[in-house]
Amino acid sequence: MRTEELIHALAADRTVAIRPGRAFVLALAAGAVIAATVLLSTLGIRPDFLVVIHTIRFPYKFVVTIALFAASVRLAFALARPGGDVAAAVRTLGIPALLIGVALVVELVVLPEADWGRRLVGSNARLCLMAIPVIAVGPLAALLLAFRSGAPTSPMRAGASAGLVASALAATFYAAHCTDDSPLFIAAWYSLAIAFVTVVGAVIGSRALRW
Fold it and tell me: What is the distance between the alpha carbons of residues 108 and 122, in angstroms, rounded to a whole number?
C-alpha cells in the first residue's frame, strides 16, 4: 500500500464516530459560548460600547480579528485532513495582515509622532496579554478535540492552527472590553497574545494529535 493510500485509510478509520467537519462546527460553537461566558463573567463589555461602536477605530478591531478568525478556520480545516489545500489557506492569512497593515499606515499618518508611543503602549497591555490567552483556553481545548476526529499529517501545525483559531476568537471577544482602539496597540499586544496561544497550541498538538 502506498503512503498516500495508507494516510487516507487511517483518516477514514478515525472519522467513523464523527466527521471532522461536524466536529469543527461543534468545537467552534462550543468555543464561542465558552469565550463569551468567560468574558461576560469576568471583564464584561466596556461601558461606552454603544458610543464607540459609531467611531472608526473600535469597529475596525473586529474587522481585523474576525478576518483573522475566518482565515485561521480555513487553515485549520485544511490541516485536519490529508490533501487539504494548506498553501491556499495560508495565503488567506494575508488578508488580516493587510488590514492591520493599512490601518497602521493610516494611524501613523494621521497621528502626531509624539502620540505614537502613547497609543502603542496604551493602558491595557498587561491585561491584553493575560486576557486573550485565558479566554482562548476553552476554545483551544474544544478545537484540539475536534482535530482528533480527523487525521492531521502534521500534529504540530494542526495544533498551531487550533491555537490561532482559538486566540483569534478570544481576541474578538476581548476587543469588546478593551478600551485601547489604536491599530498600533492591536498590532503589538493582540499579536503577541495571539502568537503565544498559537505556540502553546503547537506544543500541545505535537503530542496530543500524534497518531
Answer: 15
- Tens digit of pLDDT at every position of the chain (211 positions): 444 453 444 444 444 445 667 888 999 999 999 999 999 999 999 999 999 999 999 999 999 999 999 999 999 988 887 777 889 999 999 999 999 999 999 999 999 999 999 999 999 999 999 999 999 999 999 999 988 877 677 899 999 999 999 999 999 999 999 999 999 999 999 999 999 999 999 999 999 887 6
Query: What burial class does residue 103 get, using C-beta atoms within 10 Å of its C-beta: 0-12 exposed, 13-18 middle, 19+ buried?
Result: buried
Report DSSP letters for 131-171, one per residue.
HHHHHHHHHHHHHHHHHTTS--S-HHHHHHHHHHHHHHHHH
Give the pTM.
0.88
Residue 160: give the domain boundaries: 3-208
User: All 3 cell numbers of residue 147?
Assistant: 482535530
Work out how many domains the chain is built from and give that number. Answer: 1
Helices (H), 43-124: 49-52, 57-80, 86-92, 94-110, 116-121
Distance (Å, whole) CA 57 – CA 3: 50
The C-alpha cell of 105 is what?
A: 499606515
